[in-house]
Every structure is written in structure tokens, then in C-alpha cells.
Structures
1.
Amino acid sequence: MATATEADAMRRAIALAARALGATSPNPVVGCVILDPQGTALGEGWHRRAGGPHAEVEALAAASAAGHDVRGATAVVTLEPCNHTGRTGPCAQALITAGIARVVYAVADPTDDATGGAATLAAAGVDTEGGLLADEAAAGNAAWLTSVLHGRPFVLWKYAATLDGRSAAADGTSRWITSADSRADVHRLRAEADAVVVGSGTLRADDPHLAVRDHEDAVQPLRVVVDTHASVTPGARVLDDAAPTLIAVGEHADTTHLPGVDVVRLPRAGADGGGHGGLDVHALLGELHARGVRSVLLEGGPALAGSFISAGAVDRVVGYLAPALLGAGPAALGDAGIGTIARALRLEVTDVARLGPDLRITAVPTASATAPEEN
């Protein structure tokens, strides 16, 4: 059974893994801490980039660089060590070769090619235990696990609103509803995402840039504009070279004014495709998944957000609420196909934080997704 020291090491490994959010796709984020028999950390590491050394190899290298002998040590890892050779070798074999005596991991690897590392370790005589802080580790790897289990990217919808739920004033002005602290936090979310998605309405109203600022070494996310009629103009800020950009348009849209721009043509939404006349949300997510996108930050306006909610394609919601009232103006969420309180999308609040004068509320859909019918 895992010890308290191993649990502390797992928390550290989870924190290490989070440093690479937005940089490892299509791979998972993974952290590793190596402990000597007395529980002292000998080395630690995390998977920094796809194609680079895995967390276990990084931790072994760090221990070696510090002059430590890891024979008989324990490796604490957030994900079951891989059992296959891809761009790097199998981590299970690397641990065996190094003389690691015990491996404690949080989440079993669900992929067909990499699973089996625990069995390989056990067959080699390594004491192996799984499941330590599995929920916490899985939450940190939610994007990758969603992609593996559901074949689509994980979607986080972010919005900013006043306390009465308005995302802009009646005249359309929206800069700035929330504080500089909240806006800085949004750049953290962008840095952790593989793609940032907005709609054509947001593009016309705000001409957003969508690139990450003030995060050194951040991998710039793919900027995605959902623009059914290809209304984006060549001078839009999102078309500069600060980050890659993809314009998703309808199948028959005229894109002759966008030479050299990466464009994908998608079908219009059907009865179960989300949205009301816009592009099919599931088709969009399928295209992004095929491009290696594992996490999406949805920054679009109320109409696009309503399309994603209607399609059942929002996994987490982060709302930045400013202590202000407008009384009129667009709501943060548009028509999501919910016509009665009994069908409301119920959420579980997982975090509440103060950012300057604002509140940041994080929530996830409940397992039932809708409220029960009242008697």
C-alpha cells in the first residue's frame, strides 16, 4: 500500500506534469519523482514536449546528474509507464534497466499501444502499484484522456460577464468587463490549450489577436475562427504570423479573398450537430482532433457557446464574474436548445477564486447533465 511519502511525491509529480500543459499534444502530460528507500527525492522530471524524453527518463537523468544511485529506489509517476517504442523508448524498460525496485502510478494508460507497462514491470520483479491519487492525476490529464476515450478534444468554455450575466453593454461595448487580473488568467488558459476557438461575430466585434502573451516559452495555440460564410477580412489580427490560424467555413463558402490561409470546409449543423444554422460542432472537433489538438479553449461569443452546449461538447466552464451590473446587452450564453428548467445543464462547482475584484468560478457538467423532472 502506498505510503504518505509516496502520496506527497505523487502530488509533486502532478504539479510537475501541469507545467507542460499545452506543449505535449498529442501526448499526455506526465510527471515523475524518484525516491530513495528513506523517502528522499533523488530526481524528478516531466514530459516537456511531444517527441522529447518522457517524465521517467527525465527523472532518471536528473538523479544521475546529481550523482545518485537509483538502484532499489521507487518511481512515483502520474501515468502508467509506457510499454511501447515510439519516438522514444518504453519507459517501463528504462525503469527496469535502471534498477528501480518499486513503481507507484496514478492512472492506468488506456491506449492500445502504450498500455501494459505495469505488467512488464511486475514480470521483471518490480513491485508495482496503481491508483494512487488517480482522480487528481486524471483531472490534470483531462484533455488527453478525453481524446483517447471519446475521440475528440477536451473543451473548456471561458466567458467574462457582469453579475447580471451580460457579456457586453447594450451598445456592444465589452472592454473591459473584467479586471487585468482576470485577463492575465485567460492568457494562462490559452497557454495551456492546443487551440483557441472564436466565432465570426467575435471576430467582427473585437478583432481579437488570440495569441498568448506574458508566458515565456509557451507553445502558441492554433487560432480557430468558425466563420460559416468566410466573412473574415485579410487584415484581421488573427491572420498575422504570431501563431498558426485555421478558418473553418461552410462547404460552399467563397474563400478567394483568403489566399495562403489555412481553411477547412465543414458541413452545416444538423439536428444533433449543435448550433442553429452554423457549422457542425462535432465535425469541427473531429477536424481539430485529426490535427493533433487535444484541448480547446472556447472563447467565442454567446451564439458559438450555445452551439457547443447544444452539441454536448463542453467539458468544463470557467466564468469570470465582474462586480458590475448592466441591465441590458447580450447574455454570456445564447440559445443552447434548452427550453425548460427541467432540461437545464446542471454544473458542479469545482473551484471559486478571487482575481482582483472579480470572481473566477470553475464548474463541470454533472454526470446526469440535466436536472430531473419535477413531480
2.
Amino acid sequence: MAEQSAQERTEQATPRKVEKARQEGQVAQSPEVGSVAVLGAAAFAFWAFRQMTGDTLMALMQTVWIRAFEIDLTELANRNSAVLAFALMAKVAGPYMVTFALVGLAASVAQVGWHVSGKALQPKLEKLDIIKGMSRLVSKRSAMELLKSVAKIAILASVGYWTIAGRLSALPASADASLGLFLFLAWDLVSTLFLRVLVALLLLAILDYAFQRWQTAEDLKMTRQEVRDEMKETDGDPHVKSRIRRLQQEMARRRMLQAVPEADVVVTNPTHFAVALKYAGGSDPAPRVVAKGADLIAHRIKEVANEAGVPVIEDPPTARALYRLSDIGSFIPQELYGAVAEILALVYRRKQAARG
């Protein structure tokens, strides 16, 4: 049971896996968002460039119809006419194409950020596997894509029927209407239908994008074993890290013991704690803790102090307070100035007595 649980993809993808999937092109992206953006851009471009487009098309129609009998049909003239026609087409279609390209790019960047992945375009031999291809056809993602396509067709058909059905009552009256009124009614129908379709597709795009994000997160989920393996790769094996920490602690302990012979006094508990102090005077405002330890480390500090001839003073309250309130390399706390001063005075008197 535990092994089966370890193989189930229940863990959210780590940032490293998300970034790796992003580099391979596996990102949450909905094509519906791009379609809606381009459709909206088409409406905007038609409104923004309508005057220029109309003038260009009108000039082209005048050239073709009004001056049809004046057109030179020689080879050179045909070539020049083709160039002119291409220039006119570029003038008409160019603004629209640029607008569509920029909007499509903006829609893609809004979904996945500014990221270009070449790996997604690389050919993969496993895509030629018929069995895997069939499995992709009956996958949950394929079923959702089919359901989305059916829903899209149903929604657009419903919107179209709803819009046109609301205008059926005006058809008999428009039969005897002038051309201007007929064009106005036709434009009202087309613009209303376009706007409603755009809103429906926008709602569908929002839902599809939310689904794509959820589906991508599900696809990137990891097993607990995969998470542990990744932690080993990124942070290192826990056993190796533990060994490194032990070595670092041993090195720090060795450096600390090397400072004990330079201490002025070692204050002990006498058995559980030992704190080595050094007072340089002058620039130092107070004695400094050069070593401290408990139990075995305390015993080792006392051994080194005895070997180096450093005085060892038993003062349990002061030793416990020094061990608890001070760190190695720091000055003793101010509330212990008096107790430590008495200990140092005792050490200095003993040294003077030994000399004289």
C-alpha cells in the first residue's frame, strides 16, 4: 500500500519541474484566447481603417470599371498593373495583417509570458508510434477537446438563432424599404450578431484557459519518490549533507579548542558546562567568550585548559548563565560584568601570589 501511494501522482509540481516543462513548451495555453483576441482585433481594425480601406477599394473599382477601355494590354503594361494591384492589396490588407499578428502575439505572451522554446518544434519519433497515437485519441484531454468543440458549435448556433430570430419580424417591412434602410437593417443584424458571438467566444475562452491551467497542473504532478529524487539532485543526498554538517561542526569545534590556550580563565559548572573567557583590555569593553561547551565538550575544554595552564574556576551559576546568554566570539552580557570581574580578580591574585 505504501509503495502504491508513493507511485501515485499526488504532489504538486516543483518549481524546477515547472521550469523544465516550460522550456520544453509544455505550458497552459488556450487557442480560444488567441482566436477571440484576433476576432476582436478584426472588429477594431475594420473600424479604425474603414476610411482608408473604402477609399482604396473605391479607387481600384474606378480604375477597373470606368477606365476599362483605356487599359493597355501590352506585356509591360500588364506587369506594371500587377505591381500596382499588389501594392493596392498590400495597402488594404497590410494594416489588418499587422494588427492581427501583434494581437495574436500579445495574447500568447499574456498567457505564457515571453518565452520561445525550440524543443516544442523538434521532431519526436515517439509521435510516430501508432499505439501511443491511439491512446492520445481516447485520452481525457481529447475527450475534453471534443466536448469543447461541440459546446462551441452549440453556443454559436444558439447565439446565431437567437439573434436572427429576433429580427424575423422586421423582414416583411423591409421588403418595401429603400436601399439605405435595407443596408442599415443588414448592418444592424451583422454587427449585433458579431458582438454577441464575440462575447460568447470570450466566455468560452476564459473557461478553456482555466481548464488548460488545471490540466497542465495535473499533467505535471509528481509522485513522492520523484519529489525526493529531485531534492537529492538539487540539495544533495541527505546522508551526504549530514556528513558535511558533522565535518563542519568538527572543524568549528577544533578551531574553538585551539583558542582555549589563549584564554584567561575557564569558568565551569563543574561537570556540565565550561566557558573560556579572554579579556584583552584596551579596545575590548568586556571579556570575550572564545569557547564554550556542555558535557563532553566541556570536559575537553577543561582538559585543554589544564594542559595549557589556563586557570579553571568552578562557579556553577556564572557558568550556566554564560553558556546560556553568550555566543562564541561575542562579549559577555552586561548583567554578568560583576560576576566575571570577581572571577578575573581572583585569577589575577592567584597569578601574583604564584609569582611572588
